[in-house]
Amino acid sequence: MDKQDTQHSDARPVLEGPDIARVLTRIAHEIVERAKGADDVVLLGIPTRGVFLAQRLAAKLEQITDRKIPVGSLDITMYRDDLRMQPPRALARTEIPGDGVDGRLVVLVDDVLFSGRTIRAALDALGDIGRPRAVQLAVLVDRGHRELPIRADYVGKNLPTSLRETVKVQLAEEDGRDTVLLGVKPTQ
Amino acid sequence: MQRHLISAADLTRDDAVLILDTAEEMARVADRPIKKLPTLRGRTVVNLFFEDSTRTRISFEAAEKRLSADVINFSAKGSSVSKGESLKDTAQTLEAMGVDAVVIRHGASGAPYRLANSGWIDAAVINAGDGTHQHPTQALLDAFTMRRRLVGRDAGIGQDLAGRRITIVGDVLHSRVARSNVDLLHTLGAEVTLVAPPTLVPVGVETWPCEVSYDLDSTLPKTDAVMMLRVQRERMNAAFFPTEREYSRRYGLDGDRMAKMPEHAIVMHPGPMVRGMEITAEVADSERCTVVEQVANGVSIRMAVLYLLLGGNEPAVAHTRTEEK
């Protein structure tokens, strides 16, 4: 829904490794501030890269608060609204921390916020797992072009893009390096 | 993935591993407060059962309902089939009602293949057991159970069963479960040995990708999983062994025999078990027996198959309707 592969070489980095680390530190502080200490926060990353971002955020939150922060993953594949428009996709792992999400502040974490459809699917998936006190959204990059009334609570970087452009997040855990690449969609 | 699931032999290694991996995620839905996914909302699945079955039918029904499909159950008893309707007419009736998938169990080997390839219907066809031919979802759930037990739940993701030694014991002649398992386990890299009285070994078994032995005791020490098959009295119209007692003595699994297996080895049974015949109560109730696990795994596997066949837009393999003349 919101990410395209950038195979071409003219993609240019808009965030590099140290920028991403700084951005995540800032978001962690914002979460603590907004949640008044973050004592009931549960971080749920959306596979694939959202999970790594959630884990990094949790590590930073633990440094700040000196408490263990529950972190998990939420696969949204079977809740997508475009399931019927593509061949079946392989499923990713949904891992809900032991104490569940009931009555807690769930922060969804994803790499790129684009149409908002992934987050809509994530809200549906979350509804089948429990009833959080509140749900917030943290993204590394917000590239605009929303198709649903959804916004992020914590944004690493606002990146105004055109629909002809592509945004690709690479993280060390998956891609071997930390970077956000802005490219141009190859013309068909 | 193909559009239909007719035979375990049609699956490639990658297809089979994808189904097992998908089932591993589906299994986690069973632990949730709301055991339901919206994935097949608005799709209609018919369970077309021409042969008695409780386990398989209920398992399919549970899987379909967990994926939010609309389920229609059809059993030959009390339907127009008992008035003499043919498979073709039944199929066309279902087609007219607009079903998206047909799960079929039939006493005649090849009935699901006929249904899938005759051009009678457009729906995806899933074989839930046909005659003595195939029962692919059973083979998949058996492989899933083996992978979970022998490799590990998380460690198993993306893995096959390479090098695992599986022994299938009993009425191979009448067993679609044995046939499907031999095909699938071979695809997944396991080494399969069939153990049965010579009279219950099918003609042509030398062309199957497996070993055949008549001696259970010498095979058990080299086994990672043993699968006991039920002696299918209802399919037997001749004397295949002198007495049940003799069969049980030579090919049944009791505590002493189980002790000959390696520590980690598991005992499997597709059910229904006949206690005292192919398996003793001591073995059936032991920790190493996975019968109940296999039932739970069956729902996960069937959810995975339904999702992979019906969840997307287009079948991966183009399906051209060939009209029957």
Which short descriptors sum up this protein?
A: alpha/beta; three-stranded antiparallel β-sheet; disordered N terminus; B: alpha/beta; 2 domains; 11 helices; 35% helix; globular; disordered C terminus; pyrimidine biosynthesis (chain B)
Question: What topology does this entry show?
Answer:
The complex is a heterodimer of chains A (188) and B (325).
Chain A: E1 12-16, H1 17-34, E2 41-45, H2 49-65, E3 71-73, E4 105-113, H3 117-127, E5 134-142, E6 154-158, E7 165-170, H4 172-175, E8 179-184
Parallel strand pairs in A: 2-3, 2-4, 4-5, 5-6
Antiparallel strand pairs in A: 1-8, 7-8
Helix pairs in contact in A: 1-2
Chain B: H1 13-29, E1 44-49, H2 55-66, E2 70-75, H3 87-96, E3 101-106, H4 111-117, E4 124-130, H5 136-151, E5 165-169, H6 176-187, E6 191-195, E7 211-213, H7 216-219, E8 225-228, H8 244-251, H9 255-259, E9 266-268, H10 281-284, H11 291-310
Parallel strand pairs in B: 1-2, 1-3, 3-4, 5-6, 5-8, 6-7, 8-9
Largest sheet of chain B: 5 strands, parallel
Spatial separation of the terminal alpha carbons of chain A? 18 Å
Count of separate DSSP helical elements of chain B: 11
Q: Identify the most extensive interface between protein chains.
A: A-B, 19 and 22 residues
CATH architecture of chain A: 3-Layer(aba) Sandwich
Quick check: average pLDDT of chain A?
A: 91
Shape of chain B: globular
Q: Please, what is the oligomeric state?
A: heterodimer
Q: Considering the protein shown, what is the CATH homologous superfamily of the largest domain in chain B? A: Aspartate/ornithine carbamoyltransferase
Number of strands of chain A: 8
Query: For the largest beta sheet of chain B, what order do the strands appear in spatially?
Result: 7-6-5-8-9
Catalytic activity (chain A): UMP + diphosphate = 5-phospho-alpha-D-ribose 1-diphosphate + uracil
GO molecular function (chain A): uracil phosphoribosyltransferase activity
Keywords (chain A): Glycosyltransferase, Transcription, Transcription regulation, Transferase
GO biological process, one term (chain A): regulation of DNA-templated transcription
